[in-house]
Design goal:
This protein is of the alpha/beta class. It has one domain (about 5-190): Uracil-DNA glycosylase-like domain (Uracil-DNA Glycosylase, subunit E, 3-Layer(aba) Sandwich), CATH 3.40.470.10. The protein has helices spanning about 5-10, 45-50, 55-70, 95-110, 120-125, 135-140, 160-165, 170-185; strands spanning about 30, 35-40, 75-80, 115-120, 145-150, 150-155. It has a 6-stranded mixed β-sheet with strand order 1-3-2-4-6-5. Strand 5 and strand 6 (about 150-155) form a beta hairpin. The longest helix is centred in the middle third of the chain and has 18 residues, at about 95-110. The chain is globular and about 40 Å long. This is Type-4 uracil-DNA glycosylase. Keywords: 4Fe-4S, DNA damage, DNA repair, Hydrolase, Iron, Iron-sulfur, Metal-binding. One of its GO terms (biological process) is DNA repair. InterPro entries: Type-4_UDG, UDG_Type-4/5, Ura-DNA_glyco_family4, Uracil-DNA_glycosylase-like, Uracil-DNA_glycosylase-like_sf. Its EC number is 3.2.2.27.
């Protein structure tokens, strides 16, 4: 399967009730050969309107963070665990995560990134196999080498950019985590994209 075919399948998905209220599913976008994948929790209102991940204020902050470490949005792949917006931006429910998990698994297998950067506790819980048990402040900024969908990958959890917008005191923490990402890739940045 190609990434484009998977995106088409996601756009037609009716596996959980979230499809009933969506305007657009949000498969994800970016460099299909990237060695870095950012994984958010679920689309918000702006993403639902545009069908693209991280296009609101949180997306703007994510782009600023990428630029601060010498990357551009088009250098990486950005997606979410859940591909449709939960009503009123509520947290994704376990059954919604479960319904979307095969899509995330397929994306990771097709892109085959070396570094996964989960943004927020839901995506961290999925990647570390501990849904609902994660304190993002307890795991952020640490590099884990774990098996994710059949391959050992580096996982660098960080805060969701929206959290740093709601609580400006968290901004230095997310910046620290991006500096850690920069140090992970700095030895061979040119060959990564």
């Amino acid at each position: 399967m190609r990434l484009e075919d998977l995106a088409e399948e996601i756009l037609r998905c009716e596996k959980c009730p979230l499809h009933l209220n969506r305007k657009r599913a949000v498969p994800g976008e970016g460099n299909p050969n990237s060695r870095i994948m950012f994984i958010g929790e679920a689309p918000g209102r702006n993403e639902d309107e545009m069908g693209r991940p991280f296009v609101g204020a949180a997306g703007k902050l994510l782009e600023e963070l990428l630029i601060s470490i010498g990357l551009r949005r088009q250098d990486v792949f950005i997606t979410n665990v859940v591909k449709c917006r939960p009503p009123n931006n509520r947290d994704p429910r376990p059954e919604e995560i479960e319904a979307c998990l095969p899509y995330l698994k397929a994306q990771i297998e097709l892109i085959d990134p070396e570094i996964l950067v989960p943004l927020g506790r839901h995506s961290v819980g999925v990647l570390l196999g501990r849904i609902g048990e994660i304190s993002i402040l307890g795991v952020r900024g640490k590099v884990y080498e774990v098996e994710v969908f059949g391959a050992i990958r580096k996982v660098l959890p960080t805060l969701h950019p929206a959290a740093a917008l709601y609580n400006p005191r968290l901004k230095p923490l997310i910046r620290e985590d991006f500096e850690k990402l920069k140090s992970l890739i700095s030895s061979g940045l040119e060959g990564w994209f």
